[in-house]
Request: fold
Amino acid sequence: MKLDHTGIAVRRIDEAIEFYTNVLGGKLAHRYTSEKPGVETHIAVIELENQVIELLEPTSKTSPIERFIRQKGKGVHHIAYAVDDLHATMEEMESRGLTFLKDTYRINPYGRRLIYINPVHTQGTIIELCDYVDVEK
Reply:
């Protein structure tokens, strides 16, 4: 398991992209919008020298990112860890009593399968597990 990216909740994604590219020297790798129920978010992936930042701007009042910003404010939303096989890792963790937020499971447009661990097991930190299918990382 290794750190894959850090998700950051923002109000204005264009301003955040400008900061991460022009000030910190990152490169905008991908930008897309997911209007799927339970996601409803503009997403920008910024590649820095040794890390990836995922900027997240809510697109609706029902977006989980909107709810997060209302409750906790802007800033770090989640930490994502890449695993070799998402389903095998989930089975192993479930055998140890961990649970997942099953409704968060999805495959993004770039082939990343992901799911969130139930934060009751992580002292409240939102942790995403992910792997990549049919793409080179």
Remarks:
- The helical segments are 13-23, 64-72, 86-95.
- The domain at 3-132 is CATH 3.10.180.10 (2,3-Dihydroxybiphenyl 1,2-Dioxygenase; domain 1).
- The chain has one domain: 3-132.
- The chain has three helices and eight strands.
